[in-house]
Known about the structure:
Oligomer: single chain
Helix content: 25-40%
Shape: globular
Largest sheet: 8 strands, parallel
Number of helices: 11
Radius of gyration: 19 Å
Distance between the termini: 28 Å
Amino acid sequence: MPALGLGCMGMSEFYGTADEGEALATIHRALDLGVTFLDTADMYGPFTNERLVGRAIEGRREGVVLATKFGNERGEDGSRKGVNGRPEYVRRAADASLQRLGVEVIDLYYQHRVDPDTPVEETWGAMKELVDAGKVRYLGISEAAPETIRRAHSVHPVTAVQTELSLWTRDPQDDGVLDTVREIGAGFVAYSPIGRGFLSGQIRSIDDLEPDDFRRQNPRFQGENFQKNLGLVDRVREIAADKGVTASQLALAWVLHQGEDVVAIPGTKRVRYLEENAAAADIRLSAEDLARLDAAAPPGATAGDRYPDMSAVRR
């Protein structure tokens, strides 16, 4: 596994206007640079992101570590049907993802969110069947609480736990998730390691976001929270300038310094940002650098929740 992967979500939805040509070029450039861990999900688009990734890796499947997810059920019209972990849905979702991706096997298959109405053991029983059938190689879970992770692991080994982790989201270090990951010997996949782009320092106003950008509804991007969080970002930018790197690169380097078992999957839909992010893997942070960053962005310093509705995470 490379230290850095590529989150493909924003290429199809959520982060403003999509450009398929640039998205394909970004994935191809990622593979050229050795960024071979690609992260998608059936609900991105919905469904269109898997098709995009499938087209991008056609003829280059060997060497790609392909991860996708199920559980946030959506209709073809984009409607949201809720979280679904029922066994029959797991099987149906996996077959549909394989078809859209145009592959014979999914390397890493995540339960995207935990269904409160279906015991995780039942969901993971169906996921284990996918491994036994050769449709999936490894299993993961996203945004799950420590006890849920252990329960899933009792059915089939959890290879990866994906959760938000960055300088402005330190929750996994405090709520037992990272400790649990290490207890069971899994890997940790950090999504939104640049704080949904905020830590880049390039978003100075809510008007810097396109009208349909989902971050406009994110509590951390609104009102007084936005202004308070700008102060945190500016402190990070100052440290980055001292090191001669960008704020995004410094934010990524910090995530990678949280352990050799931590992989970051920054999302981008542009080649130039992909190249900037990839260079972060070579940045070395001293104990003094890490201490400065801890002081600049300590746990609990970020204003606002991660999502408008936090009820679907850490189940």
